Amino acid sequence: MAMRIVVLVKHVPEPTATWRFAADHTIDRDGVEGRLSQLDEYAIEQAVKLVEAGTDAEITCLTMGPPRAADALRKALAMGGAKGVHVCDDALHGSDAPATSLVLAAAVRRIGFDLVMCGMASTDAEMSVVPSMLADRLGVPQATNVADLAVDGTTLVAHRETDTATEELAVSLPAVVSVTDQSGEPRYPTFKNIMAARKKPVETWSLADLGIAPDGVGLAAAGTAVRDARPRPPRVAGTVISDEGDAAARLADFLATGKFI
Q1: Euclidean distance between CA atoms 10 and 31, whole angstroms
Q2: Vertex 91, ends 86 and 96: CA angle to 5°?
Q3: What is the mean pLDDT of residues 4-8?
């Protein structure tokens, strides 16, 4: 039986665009261009490399989000995924990390898995907590900040870089793995692969399909709330101190006035 790899992907606002907030203080995702989270591309790349290295596996790409999230899913398929699953439900709007992990865990269980792969964070929230929450909900081990990995039977062998050493981890499958942006540049989908991705199967599931009650997710069920949001004020000119023999004293006065010292 082929190994079942599930790669989590997310449609996020374009990092270089101007983000705006909706009336409920969530990101206005319809008002800004979006894309597949760059950090998720590294997870897809590592999954594809496992298959290219000879691992008998099928890669399913899983996303949760509004209809536009399908764009990220299609790019993930163009990079090497075999099929996709899109969890899409109006009740998901405003879900926090615990709710997101709840939904993703239910979807992963329904797909069936031996290995779940994620980027180390999403490029919008940058919380880096969903992979750990997911591993906890699934009741499986997790390897974090992985730079490269290989599969040996029912064991995953991974390496990660720390400030002082390269660590080698041996993790029993099934498991959840999050990879870093130091794991090798993701491939760029060719036109042929982009066209082929349009024909790959994608299933769309609702909360009802996963057996999850709508009142357990969404903005109303979130553990935190944003009360107000304002645009960042424009940059102002800094203070320039020219050295005319008293620069040190003037710099000390400036720092003291600003309560930096």
Answers
A1: 17
A2: 85
A3: 97
